[in-house]
Amino acid sequence: MEFDFVVSCNMRNPTHVFLFRGINLPFSPRKAFFKPSIPPLPTSQRRHHVSFSLSPVSENIQSSSVLDHTNGGAILMTEFEDTTFSGNASKLSENKERIVVQTREVRRGLVGFGRRYVDGKSLMIRYSELLKLCASGKDLWGGMAIHGQLVVTGLEPDTHLWISLLNLYAKCGTPECALRLFDEMPNRDVVSWTALISGFVAQGCGSEGAELFCEMRKGGVMPNKFTLPTVLKACSLCLELEMGKQVHGEVIKTGVDSDLFVGSALVDLYAKCGELESAERLFFSMPQKNAVSWNSLLNGYAQSGCGTQVLGLFSQMAESDIKFSAFTLSTFLKGCANSENLRGGQAVHSMAMKMDCDMDEFISCSLVDMYSKCGMADDALKLFTGIEHPDTVTWSAIITCLEQQGKTQEALELFSLMRQNGAKPNEYTLASLVSASIDYGDQLYGESLHAFIYKYGYESHNCVGNALVSMYMKCGDVQSGSRAFELMTDRDLVTWNALLSGYHDEDVCDAGPQIFSEVLAGGLIPNMYTFISILRSCSSLSDTSFGKQVHAHIVKNKMNENDFVGTALIDMYAKSNSLEDAEFVFHRLNRKDIFSWTVIIAACVRSDQAEKAVKYFKSMQRDGMKPNEFTFASCLSACSDIAFVETGQQVHSMAIKIGHSDDLFVAGALVDMYGKCGCIDEAVAVFDCQFMRDTILWNTIICGYSQHGQEMKALEAFQLMLTGNVVPDEVTFLGVLSACSRMGLVEEGQRLFKELGTTYRISPTIEHYACMVDILGRAGRFNEVIHFIEEEKMNSSSIIWETVLGACHLHGNLELGKLAAENLFQLVPSMESTYILLSNIYASRGRWDDVRDLRVLMSSQGIKKEPGCSWVEVEGRVHVFLSQDASHPRIQEIYSNLEETSKKLTASGYIPKIKHVLHDVTDNEKKENLMYHSERLALSFSLIGAKPQKTIRIFKNLRICGDCHEFMKHFSSLLSKKIIVRDVKQFHHFKDGTCSCGDYW
Asked: How far is CA 602 from CA 399, 408, 610, 972, in A?
């Protein structure tokens, strides 16, 4: 009787048919998780059909042309020798000789079975021996051939032979086939169950192994000391701690808890599940310990990042008789990597060198990972270049390290090299590369990576999706970031944080609160990054009400003591004009770093609390905190607002000392500070020292020149800016148009206004239109003013009519002034300056009845005139004066000095211009009123100070009146003093009887 053993190999979908007891294997899997995994033959060695015939008792073996006749007519095909009998080449490289010997024995054993083994029992023993050889050599195809020969014999296998077959398929990496064979076994004892479970565990299928154990116990089969460590390994693989504890109970119940292998498996289970105390207690209670048990506990501590415990355990292991293996060293290196213990890792590196295993690729990869996670990119890269075949994990580690160390270009180059070497990146590699593309500032490269990720199916991985969302959001592409977010199926808090991080700009910030609400509705607990992002959205929205609700959630989640969240809260309250709340949060911070100090200083500047900002800056210095460039810029802005020139000079000195004076932010703030404090020469000196000049810095110096009456220099600076290929913006043209206005350059202003749109493609803002109205109005060309307003359709703009009213006040144009005021009364009825300017026009014409009527109207509207106020900085302190002030401690000296000075000026030809007194009183009363204006009191005080000032700088909240302007001119000529007065409109530099404004302000 002859049987055909057929191996049918299709080139694309190989199917392997087994015949055993008349049943075809494989058949439909019993469980959903089973998938065919019999390894296909290499393409070069596949045949469409190979067949041969065997006779169970005949000595004649009829073989096809593919049989190897050199070894006794073995039925195994010679073309399969290199692959069929080699198993896993990497694992068997060390045992090649042994496998070859076993293979030959298998071949010899299949010759003449009927002649040599008449006894069925002896035949089954021989089959079992051969199957055992194939199992130990991972020789699946050899075992399949034996299985086929066994079918030919027609023997009824005994239990031992069944288990040998089961063991073969389990150990050769095909547990599914083992399971199907197991289903056909008539008697299933603990040995067969253990063999089947171990097959699944060996393939990393922990859940399946644990399920099989449960099925075994339901069947009433008791485990032995080999089953228990196997199922404990299964629980470790799938982190089934509760089931592992139940198996631990079985261990105690069966009395094998002192067994070395069982104990090691228990230590491994508890360690991998994070129960390190239980693992340590079990480990030290073991009567015997081997390298496996030591490594299990060591690995558990390493995974948890417990660097101190890893180092202590490693030291104890070194004191024992246990010999270190490459796995032990790599485990310790993993612990050093996770805890960033560089010294410990370097010590192991030295040990590996002494043991001559530092060139081992396994150890080298672990060293690369350790140095990478410890931030030693150069050392990691040096080791990496010596690895001949780095695995994907090692590629990922070095790329991630380079990206985190800011070496973006090197990281991207390594990725290209990785692809050239044929290594396939994993999700962690790609996530790091996407992050690198953010730092690289190349969204196009990031989009290319996105295409690569999509092509290879990594888009669904959580870490990759999170990186993509974050990349698009940081690049400002909110739409693409939202699309990447929508495509993600597994969204965690990191995903939501990445999405929320893009919704803080003014254009999209209104979506921030909705996203935050969805986070809460989804049951996620916000963390630090969630709160920082939503607070940034609230800052852009200036929404204090929602910000306070977020603050409540912060307190509820016990994040109110987090300094980073606290800093974000300060910024939110500051930008919402709630300085008191910002200060409250600031003072409750546990640790105030440079960022929190900078935010509170900037908050004070934004809330017009410049003096408080300077006080905070000084407090920060007393706390030993070193300012950064943003702190300097904020403090200098405060000095600009209140003209603290001495404090500004001290800050400038500190910036030079620390090395921030060349920073563009600081340089721009310095030029602005000196300019606003009346020190235009110092501002120019700072500007000239800057090698790099951006548009903002040019704008600052141009506007500075314009405000200081150096309009020609402003226009020259504008030409130099264009020559340097720096592109002007809206602010630039405000500066040059203002310069044209003060110089009366009507045609030049008109030309620049036209070029604004035609040459530079800048859409004029309402401020630009106001500049043009001011240019025409200051020149007294009121007909053109009206024509311009009507042509540009700006009748509904308050800033335009305010500019017109200012020009009418300058030229005394009552009719147009009344028209401008009527428009302003309708547009902004509560604006104080409208009433004041119109009242001044009436007063200059002597129309006191109209002045009184206007003042009654102001009173009925609840509008009060802001009192004139001037201040001067003397010896580091600011002294403030009101008109007719009598509150200063040295007021008698001030009055006496002022009266004496006035007499000298009168003697030199100064005549008070009483027309500038806008009250219906006598001439003497008008002269007395002019005598005690606030700017004159400030001037007098600066003269009686302990240290005579070479240049006197006075600051005023309103426009300087015509008589005070004349007074300052005469004073500068009589006493040879330079006086700088900054009023609400511009600077006036008085020297030798002249003013920089040319009496045109």
From this structure: 39, 33, 9, 38
CA dist 670 → 618, 651, 985 (Å):
18, 9, 21
Helix (H), strand (E) at residue 487: helix 478-487
- The CA distance from 512 to 522, in Å, is 16
Q: Residue 138's pLDDT is what?
A: 76
Average pLDDT over residues 386-409: 79
The CA-CA-CA angle for residues 64, 67, 72, to 5°, reads: 125
Q: What are phi and psi of 991, to 5 degrees?
A: -155, 130
Locate tokens 């049943």: which residue? 23
Q: Quote the CA–CA distance of 236 and 882 in Å, as a whole number.
A: 82
In the numeric block, which tokens belong to residue 783?
Answer: 């007909």
Question: For 675, how many CA atoms within 13 A lie in the half-sphere containing its CB?
Answer: 27
CA distances from 165 to 151, 168, 329 (A): 12, 5, 38
pLDDT at 569: 93
Q: At what angle do helices 326-339 and 342-354 cross, to 10 degrees?
A: 160
Q: Are strands 978-982 and 951-956 parallel, antiparallel or unpaired?
A: parallel
Q: What percentage of the chain reaches a pLDDT higher than 90? A: 24
Separation of alpha carbons 992 and 994, rounded Å: 6
Burial of 725 per CB tally in 10 Å (0-12, 13-18, 19+): exposed
The backbone torsions φ and ψ at residue 843, rounded to the nearest 5 degrees and listed phi first, read -65, -40
pLDDT at 973 exceeding the cut of 60: yes
Residues 512 and 500 sit within 8 Å (Cβ to Cβ): yes
For 845-946, strand residue ranges (E) read 869-874, 877-882
Residue with tokens 């009250």: 919
Provide the pLDDT for residue 518. Answer: 92
Please indicate whether residue 283 or residue 968 has the higher confidence score (pLDDT).
968
Q: What is the dihedral of CA 552, 554, 558, 562, to 10 degrees?
A: -140
pLDDT 10s digits, 281-319: 776 677 776 667 666 666 666 666 565 566 666 666 665
CB within 8 Å of 150: residues ≥ 6 apart: 20, 127, 157, 161, 165
- Would the CA dihedral through 185, 191, 197, 201 be positive or negative? negative
On whether the CB atoms of residues 93 and 54 are closer than 8 A, the answer is no
Between 813 and 121, the more confident residue is 813
Whether 567 has a pLDDT exceeding 50, the answer reads yes
- Tell me what the pLDDT averaged over the chain comes to: 78
Q: Which residues pair with residue 23 across a beta bridge?
A: 20
Domains of the chain: 765-865 (1.25.40.10), 870-995 (no CATH)
Q: Who contacts 749 (Cβ-Cβ below 8 Å, separation ≥6)?
A: 737, 740, 741, 771, 772, 775
**pLDDT-based confidence at residue 435 (cuts at 50, 70, 90):** confident
For the stretch 679-688, pLDDT in tens is 999 999 999 9
Secondary structure of residue 442 in the 3-state scheme: coil
